[in-house]
Amino acid sequence: MELDEECKGCLYNSQLKKVEREQKDGKKLSEFKAGVKALCENPPEHYCAPLLMRDIDSLHREIFGAGIDYSREKSLFNLKLLSMEEELYSHIMSSADSVESALGFACASNYIDFARLCDIGEDSVSTVIEAGERSKLNKAVTQSFKEKLKSAGTLCFLHDNCGEIVLDKILIRVIAHFYPRIAITSVVRGKPIINDVTKDDAKEVGLEEYSRVADNGTGIPGTCLAEISEEVKQLLKHSDVIISKGLGNLETLYGEGYNIFYAFNCKCRHIAERFSAPIWSSVFVEEK
To answer: CA-CA distance, 216 to 228, in Å (whole number)?
Structure first.
């Protein structure tokens, strides 16, 4: 999906707020602001939001010597959701349709996104849980998902952000319980970027207990086909079922010819219009 004007403004504002809170060198801050403004105003043709975010982070590295640091936020949300994991898993497993319930919570958890919402705090976890309870996903899509799981031997799960990775893990546990013959591979980012999940973050939440973890070789907050590893390209080509979490993966993969189930929170106007979904709703769509 090509870069929308809303995306430019969102990335500009969210990242400047984060950097202004943490960097006190006025000269470097001014240089960073000017650079981010230039990046947002003059992106290459056919660019998408994840590539622009990668460029903003690279600019930060050039000026301040390191990428924009979200390590505190990542660990905070991982540990908070981990403390709730078993309770949530038991709740989901006791529901009338555990797979649909787990999907609803996983979609709602995509709210934890520091590229879109730089000021979210620990109290937003309760917002996620309440939204997960209310999630009403497309019945035809969830039914198609469950039908494909019945005959699947492999599943590729493209993860997005920390915090929500715990709800992804619960969804994987539910799938493994009902479809134990499926071999599941979790794909995370190859390098730190915003609050996206890396192998270290996957290890922090114990994801490897339930799926094999592979990184995509990039520091882009999405799955950019031109830059991901050959291993991940083969996973996309040969996996029986693919789940894509979050808007970054959606924006880099939608329309590229793969049969993918996209699970996300509808945080943007242009995404809401594209999928005819209310802002802040949980969305589960299938691209055939």
So the answer is: 5
CA 93 to chain centre: 24
The predicted-structure confidence for 169-181, as pLDDT tens digits, reads as follows 999 999 999 999 9
Task: Say how far apart CA 108 and CA 91 lie, in whole Å.
Answer: 16
As a CATH number, domain 71-287 is: 3.40.50.10880
pTM exceeding 0.90: yes
The Cα 265–Cα 111 span in angstroms is: 6
**Do the Cβ atoms of 182 and 154 come closer than 8 Å?**
yes
Question: Which residues fall within 8 angstroms of residue 194, CB to CB, at 6 or more apart?
Answer: 53, 57, 68, 70, 114, 115, 161, 221
